[in-house]
């Protein structure tokens, strides 16, 4: 960090809160637009000032890290890999930079949402059962427990289950009208997003059957089967998208996160006004850590790609395994 003006000690006439904001807003650490952190866009500035006033670490809560259900499109590994570890290292880098000018630093709380989302994505809870424990192990072994902690969204909902169950039918009834409106633009965006994460194991099996034994089918049967596969994937995504929208609306109206973390800055994976979007990947990477596999590059950076990219060029990569595991913790580019 030496030589970077953003991490110099507090400049003349600059108070500590402004200095913390200056560091957090540096594009080395922040992937949002500068105006996302302006006083007019939300309470980020006020939360920073409150933390500094009481000389406590600035808390940033990030609802993300959904889990790694196996998918032939994205990855086969269901445990975290080097991509998540790299994301944790980038969060720790933010804390270290802030500590240059504000010793209490930053504490990140990650809300794990995999188990909460499994029901409408079409997975059983066991699909993500090991993921939180593995993440906690990565944080602990990297010596980052003072910087990063985790809480499960499913547990937060369970603690207020009666309120959630009472509100959900009302939200469903209200949102179904928007969902059926052809002009509802968010629907198509959600459908596109949900196609990737929804459970399509039956479709996967049918695709493998078709690819390996296409000689068993007539041309008309192949066309019919492909159409049915596409329709099944679309139906699954449609159900997922609506349930996802309902779930997010319910917990927002319950103020589930803001009431649980009243003094925390709201973090986000997708930059938006009034929230803090920390870098969880190298700036050149556009796939979230949990959506792909980690590629260790010769310069030490970690790229994240869909595993199909590796399979398409097996001579270009070498898998690196942890003892006792059967899927690579990362790939080396060779």
Please name the defining characteristics of this protein.
single chain, 334 residues, alpha/beta, four-stranded parallel β-sheet, four-stranded mixed β-sheet, 12 helices
Please explain how this structure is put together.
With about 325 residues, the chain is α/β, with parallel strands linked by helices. It has twelve helices and eight strands. The strands form two sheets. It has a four-stranded parallel β-sheet with strand order 3-2-1-4. It has a four-stranded mixed β-sheet with strand order 6-5-8-7. Strand 1 (about 60-65), helix 3 and strand 2 form a beta-alpha-beta unit. Helix 9 (about 200-210) packs antiparallel against helix 10. The longest helix has about 35 residues, at about 220-255. The radius of gyration is 22 Å and the shape is globular.
């Amino acid at each position: 960090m030496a030589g970077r003006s953003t991490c110099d000690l507090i400049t003349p006439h600059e108070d500590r809160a402004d200095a913390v904001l200056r560091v957090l807003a540096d594009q080395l650490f922040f992937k949002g637009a500068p105006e996302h952190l302006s006083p007019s866009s939300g309470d980020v500035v006020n939360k920073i000032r409150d933390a500094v006033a009481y000389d406590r670490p600035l808390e940033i809560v990030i609802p993300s890290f959904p889990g790694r259900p196996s998918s032939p499109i994205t990855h086969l590994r269901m445990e975290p890999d080097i991509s998540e570890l790299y994301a944790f290292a980038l969060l720790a880098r933010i804390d270290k930079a802030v500590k240059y000018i504000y010793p209490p630093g930053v504490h990140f709380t990650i809300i794990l949402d995999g188990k909460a989302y499994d029901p409408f994505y079409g997975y059983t809870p066991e699909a993500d059962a090991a993921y939180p424990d593995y993440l906690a192990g990565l944080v602990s072994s990297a010596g980052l427990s003072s910087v990063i902690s985790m809480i499960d969204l499913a547990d937060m909902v369970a603690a207020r289950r009666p309120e959630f169950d009472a509100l959900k039918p009302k939200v469903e009834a209200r949102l179904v009208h928007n969902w059926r409106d052809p002009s509802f633009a968010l629907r198509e965006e959600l459908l596109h997003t949900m196609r990737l994460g929804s459970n399509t194991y039956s479709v996967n099996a049918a695709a493998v059957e078709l690819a390996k034994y296409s000689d068993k089918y007539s041309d008309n049967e192949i066309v019919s089967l492909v159409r049915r596969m596409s329709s099944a994937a679309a139906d699954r995504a449609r159900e997922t998208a609506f349930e996802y929208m309902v779930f997010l609306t319910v917990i927002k109206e319950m103020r589930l996160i803001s009431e649980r973390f009243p003094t925390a800055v709201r973090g986000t994976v997708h930059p938006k006004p009034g929230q803090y979007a920390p870098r969880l990947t190298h700036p050149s990477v556009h796939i979230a850590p949990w959506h792909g596999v980690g590629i260790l590059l010769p310069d030490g950076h970690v790229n994240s790609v869909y595993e199909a990219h590796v399979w398409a060029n097996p001579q270009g990569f070498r898998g690196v395994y942890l003892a006792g595991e059967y899927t690579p913790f990362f790939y080396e580019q060779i």
